[in-house]
Design a protein that fits this description.
This protein is an alpha/beta fold. It contains 18 helices and 11 strands. The protein has 3 domains: 147 residues, NAD(P)-binding Rossmann-like Domain (Rossmann fold); 117 residues, no CATH class; 73 residues, Rna Polymerase Sigma Factor, Chain: A (Orthogonal Bundle), CATH 1.10.1740.10. The strands form 2 sheets. The protein has a 7-stranded parallel sheet with strand order 4-3-2-1-5-6-7, sandwiched between helices. A 4-stranded mixed sheet has the order 9-8-10-11, with helices on one face. The structure holds NADPH dihydro-nicotinamide-adenine-dinucleotide phosphate and magnesium ion.
């Protein structure tokens, strides 16, 4: 079948272009060059990878870390590419708000993605959101900014993209309408692969090395999200992401383990119907959906072989083995300050685990310690009305979490 012809070329800023989501996005651009033009690309440390993308896509702007900016400028000059080189948060915010950009792919990892996502939301862009941490920390600000400016947020996290695809059309185009009883939405279900430790003991988790923990049975992803999947904090972060994206409290969002990673999530309706989106575990599918929405484009991959699927299974999560799930529900109930705490403590703990300073099972312990720390709890009811309030809380949490790591409070 022929694909629909797009009416105009979409101009993209790909933030986090040197990462795993950036790779998948640019693979799709290569397949559909007539539909997309790359205006801006960001990396952070991987200057050479970014330069080779520059030679291929000839963007107008690139952005790297402050430490890499001189090296990047020099190499861009040597290649005679005439690309403007920006750096840091200001550079990312500039790229996210360029008048020549229609669509911002928010694919930076961690809290570092927040300010550019928020800038894109204020600027009314079409945002393809992978950076779940920005909603965990500041969902209220990002969603309000998008509503005020007319920005659209299309999730590319596979579960949220699946839910989006299973929602009625009026809800897809107006987040508020989800509560309208005529839609009959009972609850959302996030599926989780269960990660590499699903069938392993807590003892095996405790002694896992970073190399063991990074291996994911179904998905190939960046380091941080791979560790988040091993602890299931990824699902906890996704729960909070879903609360903001779909404007629902956490108790209306179930989590079900589905080790096959074929059903990417479900929407349950009051008449007993469960609508699900299925596909291979390949991020190109949700990215292609969001890039082309409301049209569809090919990912260039083979169809999912239904005849090869047997015994798809669904299990209840083991909350003792994966305490991150409970911690995330508690944070979602407690509000923004607790969610910032959950996210920042987790980022510090994941880095410490990757640096072999703490064990995999300590990650949840660091997060719990921070969520119960009086100096942080004292701020849980602050209003976090500004980005600066959120970043200040993020910094407070990081120093408490670092104290756990430095003092080995295990
Ligand atoms: P990667 O680690 O593969 O890539 C991260 C990207 O962010 C790289 O381009 C990196 O640059 C850049 N980056 C890192 N630190 C900073 C910083 N401080 N400031 C600016 N840029 C920075 O991550 P993923 O692609 O796996 O994940 C990206 C986001 O997408 C995460 O929020 C993740 O949760 C989400 N996501 C990812 C999925 C996946 O399959 N990978 C699935 C669903 C969601 P450089 O490499 O040049 O240093
Ligand atoms: Mg996901």
């Amino acid at each position: 079948m022929n694909e629909p012809k797009s009416s105009c070329v979409q101009r993209l800023a790909v933030l986090g272009a040197t990462g795993s989501i950036g790779d998948s996005t640019l693979q799709l651009v290569r397949l559909h060059r007539e539909r997309y033009r790359v205006v801006a690309l960001s990396g952070f440390h991987q200057v050479d990878k970014l330069l080779s993308l520059c030679q291929e896509f000839l963007p107008d702007f690139v952005c790297v870390s402050d430490e890499k900016v001189a090296e990047c400028r020099q190499k861009i000059d040597e290649l005679g590419l005439g690309i403007q080189v920006l750096s840091g948060d200001d550079g990312l915010a500039k790229m996210a708000t360029l008048p020549t950009v229609d669509t911002v792919v928010a694919a930076i990892v961690g809290a570092a993605g927040l300010s550019s996502t928020l800038a894109a939301a204020h600027a009314g862009k079409r945002i393809l959101l992978a950076n779940k941490e920005s909603l965990v920390m500041a969902g209220h600000l990002v969603m309000a900014a998008a509503k005020a400016s007319g920005a659209s947020i299309l999730p590319i996290d596979s579960e949220h993209n699946a839910i989006f695809q299973c929602l009625p059309k009026p809800v897809q185009t107006d987040n508020q309408a989800i509560h309208d009883s005529s839609h009959g939405i009972k609850q959302l279900w996030l599926t989780a692969s269960g990660g590499g430790f699903l069938h392993k003991s807590i003892e095996q988790m405790r002694s896992a090395s970073p190399a063991d923990a990074i291996k994911h049975p179904n998905w190939s992803m960046g380091k941080k999200i791979s560790i988040d999947s091993a602890t299931m904090m990824n699902k906890g972060l996704e729960l909070i992401e879903a609360c903001h994206l779909f404007d629902l409290p956490e108790e209306h969002i179930g989590i079900v383990i589905h080790p096959d990673s074929v059903v990417h999530s479900l929407v349950e309706y009051v008449d007993g119907s469960l609508l699900a989106q299925l596909g291979s575990p390949d991020m190109k599918t949700p990215i292609a959906h969001a890039l082309a929405y409301p049209e569809r484009i090919s990912t260039g991959e083979r169809s999912l072989d239904l005849y090869a699927l047997s015994n798809l299974s669904f299990l209840e999560p083991d909350l003792e083995k994966f305490p991150a799930l409970t911690l995330a529900r508690v944070a979602a109930q407690r509000g923004t300050g607790a969610c910032i705490t959950l996210n920042a403590a987790n980022e510090v703990a994941v880095s410490a685990f990757l640096a072999e300073q703490i064990r995999l099972t300590d990650i949840a312990a660091v997060v719990q310690y921070c969520l119960e720390h009086p100096s942080l709890i004292a701020h849980f009811d602050d209003d976090f009305a500004q980005l600066s309030d959120i970043l200040a809380m993020d910094q407070k949490v990081r120093s408490v979490a670092m104290s756990w790591v430095d003092e080995g409070l295990a």
